[in-house]
Specification:
Blueprint: H1 3-33, H2 41-50, E1 52-54, E2 60-68, E3 73-78, E4 84-88, E5 91-96, E6 101-106, H3 117-130, E7 136-142, E8 146-154, E9 159-167, E10 174-181, H4 185-204
Antiparallel strand pairs: 1-2, 2-3, 4-5, 5-6, 6-10, 7-8, 8-9, 9-10
Helix pairs in contact: 2-4
Length: 206
Amino acid sequence: MRLDEKIALLERERRQQEKEEKLLAEQKENARKEPVKKLTLEEAMEGIRTGEFRLESGELFEFETRTFTDSQIPVVTFRNFFEASQEEAEGVIYVSHTNEVSQILSWPKEPIKPVSMKQWANLLVNGMAANRLHAKIVKTEELDFVDYICFDVPSGKDRLYNIIFRLKGTGQQFTGNYNCRKQDEDTYGVFLEAMVITLNNLFSAK
């Protein structure tokens, strides 16, 4: 092959490579601009109903319902998920260190004076402020059988997304505190909120 032919061939290869690189860059840019489909509460609740849900990323979540206290209160938890747990007479703690998710349930023997949702939210914010933490409430809900508050608060590494709830009308005090990283609010956070709503719906169905 003559020198001029080699040069022409190399030039064609260079232009082809540049074209492919440009196309790849455009595809990456378009993928970045495309809105990410967010998990909805309805989808999460349907997954809880069927026992599992697979995200578009392929990640599979499984769920199970466990009963607590003499009143057999049905609570949805993640299945095959937690690495650590601690069960006591007045509560239980489930923790996933890998995913930085926890579900804490409490049913203390000593009754707590009931307060309104507004008072409860104020107690939460003021209690955090006393510890020099700024709690940002993002949502409050009063359902038929469950009240809950969604809020985030700073932690050592990042902000934590929390859901605290209280069960009402059962004759037995029962509360919960679920949390995950703020950056996982659209996945774990949605599942955790769906679990609280499902608890309310299970009592509604009784």
